[in-house]
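A favour between colleagues. Tell me how you read the following sequence-structure pair.

===
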Amino acid sequence: MKHFLLALMFLLTVSCASIYVNYDYDKTADFSKYKTYQYFGDLKTGLSELDTKRLLNALDSTLANKGFAISNTPDLLIDIKSSDYKSNRETVGLGVGGTGGNLGGGITIGLPLGQAKTTRVINFEFVDAKTKQLFWQAKSESGFNTNASPEQRENRLKAIVNKVFKKYPQPVVQ
């Protein structure tokens, strides 16, 4: 029962916080030729060192499941960049107005509700290792809890990676 409740809590946490992903790719790219990968040597993700490690572990696992292998002589290079921003808080407007004859007037006040939400944007770019040309990219955008536990951060990054690679144009054929 305890495991069921933990699984339910995880699913609620992941499902309630939406992850939005936008894709773009070169329609002329032959995705079947990309079987091995490596990260850019100067990879600066914009994440903390621990979150970078969590993200790369999730990415390595997902890519391995899709048939990719990490290599020192890769077919493609991966670049990852991220940024965080605080979104505006929702407000409730209160208004007072009146009119009399030909005169009119009013006052409106926006009262903020709750705290500003942190949103994290992570960009994944795949570059052909030989030509150095970008051929696929995905941009994820999702809520981010700055007070999340290490397990919550890991689960969130796994969910992001899974959603990002759900629509990779073509699976790797071995």
Observations:
- The chain has a mean pLDDT of 81.
- Helices lie at 2-16, 49-65, 150-164.
- The first helix runs from residue 2 to 16.
